[in-house]
UniProtKB/TrEMBL annotation:
Keywords on record: Cell membrane, Membrane, Transmembrane, Transmembrane helix
Top-level taxonomy: Bacteria, Pseudomonadati, Pseudomonadota, Alphaproteobacteria, Sphingomonadales
Organism: Parasphingorhabdus marina DSM 22363
Superkingdom of origin: Bacteria
GO CC terms of this entry: ATP-binding cassette (ABC) transporter complex
Stated name of the protein: Lipopolysaccharide export system permease protein
Amino acid sequence: MNFFPSRTLSVYMARMFLIRVFSVVALLVVVLMSLDLLGQSGKIFAYPGNGEAELWTYTSLRLPQIFAFALPFSVLLGTLITLATLNQNSEVVSMKAGGLSAHQILAPLILASMGVAIVSFLFNEIVVAPATARLSAWEKVEFGPIPEASNVRSRVWVRDGNNLINARTVIGNGRSVLLKDITVYNRSESGLSSVIQADEGRYGGDIWTLSTVTRFDVASGTEQKLETLEIGGNLTPDQFTLSDVSADALSFPELRSAIQQLKEAGRPTAKLEASLWHKLSGPLSVVLMPLLGAVAAFGLARSGQLFLRAVIGMALGFTYFVADNFALAMGNIGAYPPFLAAWAPFLLFFLIGETVLVRTEE
């Protein structure tokens, strides 16, 4: 009736599993980070004044993303290596001879993977999301000086009727939002009528006030200097602050708050809701890996089918990642409901893994 084997055996298997998982993730992170630096170092050094310090800054911001990306694959490969080793050394045969079921053999690995899932979720919330936000802001300024404020958005485009407004920097939220380096393209039915450039823009409750303004009239070709100018009576601050919400750059509470603000503004949120649920289902996917890779643990190693079983386990795991990305893409375009897009692959492959394990080993 005990789901877990003996304490000694459980610790032995969990430790073997975790060592292999983090060994694989370390290898993948080194390889992927090196390849990424080869592709991005030229862009970083292209900005005048950038050097080795900026390269290390990029590495510190990109490394958490690569670690989060590689972890689920590493759990799958670590599972296959662990189970294939146990099978090769006839340890699985010994466990089954001692009266353990297939589920009891996998139980220590599943428990350890739950711990990895919790660590993955906390790491994504505390480290990955802020690093992604900062790296995104840095890339938008072409690896120039990184904006210091945490609530800074770069190169935001907003449409006001026929007119287009570009703010190079948006700082703050709500009515206290500040726009910097603003360009307003006033368009008529016949084409561009004027271009307005301003240093700053502030929201006054029902109107935007631009300061240090230069206005160029296209028809006459004349330029006019103004201290202030009022524009955009229909524009609201959320059009700037919520125009480009990145789910990867926000933690779970921040993303949920942004979704609520978008709903109140009457904006579509299906894509972000799918990403919100995926912040939970994504880290939890590592719990599936011992189940999907379980085929590598059973069957006689001397039958010559151990390699084939490992390939089947790997195929099941990678098929899950393909299905997960496909479902999330369907959720982003509105073809799937957000909850279904995030959780359907997890539930489907849980049933597939259980079916394979019960039909073959139980």
